[in-house]
Structures are given as C-alpha cells and as structure tokens.
Design a protein that fits this description.
Shape: globular
Radius of gyration: 20 Å
Strand content: 35-45%
Number of domains: 1
Structural class: mainly beta
Amino acid sequence: MTRRMHPGMVLTLIFTAALLSTGCGHARHPLGGVRLTRTEFLGEIWNETSAAGGVVAQDGGLAWPVPGGALWAFGDTFLGTVDSDGDRIIRGMAGTTIALHESGARRFPPALRYWTDSSGRAAMPIPLGPGESSPEHRFWPLAGVAANGKCYLFYSLIERTAGEGPWNFRGLGDGLAWSRGPLGMYERVRHGASEEWRFPVAPSQIVESGEWLWLYEARAAGSVPGAVLARVRPRDIEDPGAYEFWTGPGETFSPHRDEARLIAENIHGQVSVAWNPFAQRYLMATSSDFTAPRTIRLRAAREPWGPWSEPVLEIEVPEREGQTTTLVYCTYLHPELFELDGRRVVLTHCRMLSGEWELTNPEMTVLTFDRPRGEP
C-alpha cells in the first residue's frame, strides 16, 4: 500500500506483541490464533480530492463495494475552503455526501470523487419530501449495498431541535433510497397507499453472505446498549415486510422486529462487521463510550449471527497534541482496503473534541496481524 502524507498529517507507528489467545479450540482462539503485530495511525483522510469537492470537514466514512470501486458515505459535511494558513472558511453544510473511491485509486489518503451539484460542491444525494425542509431537516447516511442492478443507501431523517452544540437533533425514522449508479441522486423507496418511507432497520453495516444480506444495527435493549441483526434476500430489499430479525439461539430469526434480541452487548454508536480471510472469522469493530473515549474494540465470530466473542482486542487511539478527545465514533472496517488476504486490516474512525463544534475529519488506522511461529 502506498502511503503519502499531506500537510498537517501525522504518521504514528505503535508496535505491539499482543498474543490474543493460548490453547486451542474456538472458545480459546476467538481470532483463530492470530495476533496483532503492528498498529499504524495514519491521521485524517482529508486531501486535495476532498478540497476539490469543497469539503473542509466531515464525519462518517463507511464504505461498500459498488460497480467501479467502493462508495463512501459521510455524515455532516462542512463545505467551503481552506486558506493558505490552514484556516477553514465555512460556506455551507450537507447532512449526507457520497464519494467514489475508484478501483486502483490511491488508498491513503484515499482519492475520492464526490457527487456534486452544479457549482462543483459536494451535495446531499437524497431529496427532502413533503413537509420536510432545510435546514430543519437533513439526512444522515447508514449502510449501503449494490444489488438488483441498483445502488442502495439506507438513511436516517434528522430534525433539528432547540438544543445547543452537537446534540441539537432527533431522529424521525429510517428509510431506504436507490440510484442506478453509485454517484447520482437517490430515490427514496416508498410503500403502501400512504407512500410510507420508513423501514424497520437502520443498519450501519451490510454484509453479503450466501443468499442473504446481513444488516447490523447498534440498538439498545432497554438500558443495555448492544447490536441487533436483520437479514433479507437481495431481491426483497425494497420490501419492509421481508426482513427477519435474529432471536437465537443459533440461526433463528423472526419476522417481528419487537422479538429481536441483542447479538452482542455494550456496543455504542455504530457497529461494523467484515469477513477476514486470514483469521477465518467475521470481525466486529465498535466505537468507544464516554468512560473510555479513545478505545476501539474488536470482537470475532464464525457466522454472521455469532456467537460473538467478548472484545478480544482494544485499540487506544492516540490523543492529539494540545487537544482533548471526548469520544471516538463512526468506527468502520474497510474490507475493500484489506491487504495480504486480511493480514492488514483497514478501519476509519472519527473523533469528537472538547469545545463546541470543533471540526475534524475521519482518520485511518491499519492493523497488521500474524500467526505465532509454529502455528498454521
């Protein structure tokens, strides 16, 4: 992988020898006996291709395969310019933006081609509907997938409230939109005589395996934060009545959302899942909470539904010099960037800094795994 730094980006190398397990068997080898040997914190992904789309700061950063590469989706995106002193001049904002990382394009910082409006600035690709207006309403992106000759994007509709700072919002529901190509305007899926747009799932990750799409969602059960799992066949993705929800044990699902049980507990914000060929396991990456604000956790399982291990690896994101991180969030695995058959795992995360509206961009981290000598 070619690494190029842009001004203001810091490369930090941390070497560890964290043997994750001893002995044998699934319960004692949750990561298939592999160990973490190297952690590279590469810094923010912002670069000249971001500037070309008028982007100065954004969060989110989840991605999924589409024809021609991978589509990245970002949440609140601040638009404007960066002057010669590095100061940001904000001229607008979009709640959701999308960008194509073309096959073979530079990996870090990723060369992204944004979907833009007529002015050349990154723009929201989902239209507001009747009774919805900007800036009171905006969309936040959820997971996406390419299926049935279309590109799909789940979303949350957000309404601004009277609160101050970064918490002045509430969710109004979650929906699904589609486009014929990855970069374009997405049409919201509506169903029934009332043209209802809400769907019963708000996935932050979609994994394709076998005949199913597996949709992972961070959701609390009462006071317990965790994750739930839904599945749907690709041909039925636009039918909200076709989704099934994990109830356990094993591969047991129900068509009723209210019967869903947590596949894992103590999961906050978002959940990201990807298959790792090297470990022969699904990996689950989750973001921090306010008690451990810079910690990213990894879990593992043999099947999409689990059983999921307790955290087998904790990654401490370095603090920025002279600043205080109050939360790491939007942690996403990027299997499209994995290297060496999954020995090198790429993820991105965002950070919230103390102070009101301290703007940042997603950051990239690379984890390198190996097997202890003498193990297959």
